[in-house]
Prior knowledge:
The protein has helices at residues 12-38, 46-60, 117-122, and strands at residues 40-42, 66-69, 71-74, 79-87, 94-104, 108-115, 125-131, 142-150, 163-172, 179-192, 204-206, 208-212. It is α+β, with helices and mostly antiparallel strands. It has one domain (12-221): Immunoglobulin-like, CATH 2.60.40.680.
Amino acid sequence: MRIDPSGSLNNPRTLFAGSLGMLCLLAAVLTATALLLSGLLPEANAKSALQSSAEETQDSAETVPRVSVGEITGTPGASLMLPLYYTADPNVPLRSLTIEIDYVSNNLEFNKASRGVVTEKVGADVTATLIEGTPDENGLTRSKLQIATSLAEQNPQEGIPSGLLAFLLFRINPKAKPFAIRLNTSVILAEDLQSPPQEVTQIAATPGLVVVELADVLPEATCFFFTH
């Protein structure tokens, strides 16, 4: 709530802003559970989502190997470059990884994946496969993005090193409203250096987050219900 320059809290603009802020807070509380289950959060909850994701990152830091997707904020129509990281376990070196990112894609379009510093250094391939979903009864579409990387050598002596695996390029719909999308991340396939390769199942994953904000809009004017 902003205080009028005159110092009075009874100013009509101040009372309006305060009332609107309270209505937004109440609306966020009433709809939080449904939005969390669908993978979408209104902008009013973006900060708490970021904090939750950061806590998960800290918790998963005790477990390696692991993969993690970055967090980023953008405006409608913007292109976003999200980093995809990998932390290796020296006791369990890997020759290949296939990572799946599940997200609500109505207003977030995937463009391409590019090799990161690590994959370029070791000459590993990076491929991206997008599996587009169909709208559910609420009009929400969930898509799955699979990122696969593998060492080029047939019998590598060392596994994929820690660092930046890839850059993931997305574009926000120009007509998108303020919202936050959780990028649920998991490893669906990983193989070690043995011959023949053995599957590794114990790999941690940290989700990413995309937050859309409207430029030059007062915070109390951006509260809304995201329904698509």
